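Usage

Read records sequentially. Each one opens with the input sequence:
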Amino acid sequence: MSKARRIAMAGGTFMCALGAGFLVQSMAGTPDHVAASPGEVSASTSGEDAPLPVTNVVSTSAPIPPQFAPQPEPLPRAPVARAEIVPAAFDERPATALPGEEPAPTFSCEMLLEAKPVAAAMVELTLNAPCMANERFTLHHHGMMFSQVTDQDGQQHLVVPALTQSAVYMVSFANGEGAVASAEVTSMDYYDRVVVQWQGQSGLQIHALEYGAGYGEEGHVWAEAPRDMAAAAQGKGGFVTRHGLSGMDNARIAEVYTFPVGLTEREGDVVLSVEAEVTQQNCARDIEGQTIEISAGGTPLVKDLVLAVPNCDATGDFLVLKNLLNDLKIARK
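and closes with the structure output:
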């Protein structure tokens, strides 16, 4: 606010005060108060009283306050009607069943092993394990064990010897899954069998010298000259089968020699031996193995073996264990 405006306001206030003092002073100079009739006001001029005419005076009176403040209307005395409460009806009908959860999709992992007897007391095994493609497994049968692997479809087809008439075969995988199959092999009584089994690169072998044959001759039956099961089924001589995959680490391998004792008409002896070739994989260490002998489907004879292999400068040599197996005595019936 400017200084000039502030001065003007102070001067105006001062002039009003002077006027008010003059009026009070004039009124105080009247010695007597003369009651004037309505419409008149008396005034004094030079010591004389003279009435002063007053016009347009309106008589007003102060408003009379009401005796009581306005009061609210009283509430109705009739009771308020409550709404009727209807209890819910009890329904004994069963509630509609909630929809069940959709089961999570799963992949079938069913395994199937089938066994069918074939010639020469052998059994044809068919494994179907679609969830175990290219997986290693172990086949178990009456103490015999060997390692195999499924193909890209989880399947495997094997022809294996029976060691008992009521033959039970079991496949086991590393995760604990497996399958079982059985077959009744009625021709088991006609065959003698010898099993040599081991684990890893032991170099063990079965050699059979039939009817006085020498090494490398016609009657020398071993892994390099195995014959087949047709010769045994016809009573012509024995045959060797090898089971397992030697290329896998610590694979179990089983080699089996079968001779048709109950079918051959030729008398003579079969000399059996277990041999071990000295290789770079087994030299200068001990190798372990096991033999199982079964004659005409009887009780198996089991023997464990431990062999100390010479130093590696003997690589290519063979160690022959002649008295480990019992020779077969073939008599005409």
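Summary fields computed downstream for this record:
- Helices lie at 3-28, 229-233.
- Residues 3-28 form the longest helix (26 residues).
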